[in-house]
Write a structure and sequence with these properties.
Blueprint (H helix, E strand, L loop, with lengths): L10 H13 L23 E6 L24 E7 L17 E2 L2 E9 L5 E8 L5 H4 L5 H9 L5 E4 L14 E8 L3 E10 L10 E10 L4
Length: about 220
C-alpha cells in the first residue's frame, strides 16, 4: 500500500483516507495513526528510523521497544520516526515528494507513548537542519495547521522577548496557540527571532505542533 509524504498535500486522497478510517470506526489523527491506538498495531513498514527522541543514538528495532526510551514528566516515552519513501512512488519522480514533510515543510516527528503502549500524542517540529529556503519559512507551517483545523476556537498568547532578542527580517514572533475539543488538545507554537549574540546568518524560525488526547492531561 502506498502513502504520500504529507497529510495535507493531496486533499482527495485525504478525504478518501478519512472516509476509510470513519468506516473502520476510528478517526485518524495523522495519516493512519490514531491517538489511543496500541503501537503494536502500527504497520512496521510505514515508518522507519525509529529512535528515542530524548536519548541520542538510541535506535529502536520497532515501536514495541518504546520502554527503552526515557519517560517525560507525564510518563510518556518519545519515539522519533520518519516516513518510508520506498512506499511512495512519487518520491522517485521528484524531491518535492521525498522525505518527511508536512504541508511541504520538512519536519521531525515524535510519537508519545504511555506505559501501556498506547499512542497518546504526536509532536511535529519543523526541521532545523532543512535547507535555508525552508528554514526561513518554518513559521508559516503554523498557518497551514490553523487552516487545516479551522481558524475558530484557538486561544493565542504572545510571549515577551527576552533581553537581546531581535527581529529577523522585520519579524519577532513568540506565539503559542491552543485549541480543545472533546477528543483532542492541540498546541501550536511558532517563533521567529534572533537570540542575543547570534550571527546574522543564524536565527530561530520554527513551528511546533502537538496533537494529544484531551483526557490525558
Amino acid at each position: 500500500m502506498t502513502r504520500t509524504p504529507s497529510i495535507w498535500v493531496m486533499p482527495l486522497l485525504l478525504l478518501l483516507a478519512a472516509r476509510g478510517a470513519a468506516n473502520a470506526g476510528q478517526v485518524a489523527d495523522f495519516r493512519d495513526l490514531s491517538l489511543g491506538m496500541s503501537v503494536a498495531s502500527i504497520p512496521p513498514e510505514e515508518y522507519i528510523n525509529l529512535a528515542c527522541a530524548d536519548k541520542e543514538g538510541a535506535k529502536l528495532a520497532g515501536w514495541n521497544d518504546f520502554q527503552a526510551c526515557p519517560a517525560d514528566q507525564m510518563g510518556l516515552h518519545g519515539l522519533s520516526f520518519r516516513f518510508n519513501d520506498d512506499l511512495n512512488p512519487l518520491a522517485a519522480l521528484s524531491d518535492k515528494y521525498q522525505g518527511t514533510k508536512l504541508g511541504g515543510h520538512p519536519v521531525l516527528l515524535t510519537g508519545l507513548v504511555d506505559s501501556s503502549g498506547a499512542l497518546q500524542g504526536i509532536r511535529i517540529d519543523t526541521d532545523p537542519n532543512a535547507r535555508p529556503f525552508w528554514r526561513k519559512k518554518a513559521y508559516l507551517l503554523a498557518l497551514i495547521v490553523r487552516a487545516r483545523y479551522g481558524e475558530g476556537g484557538w486561544t493565542c498568547r504572545e510571549a515577551e522577548p527576552h533581553e537581546g532578542e531581535t527581529p529577523v527580517g522585520g519579524l519577532l514572533i513568540k506565539e503559542r496557540c491552543e485549541k480543545r475539543s472533546e477528543r483532542r488538545h492541540l498546541v501550536l507554537d511558532r517563533e521567529v527571532y534572533r537570540r542575543a549574540g547570534q550571527p546574522l546568518s543564524d536565527f530561530v524560525n520554527a513551528t511546533r505542533f502537538i496533537i494529544e488526547q484531551t483526557t490525558y492531561r
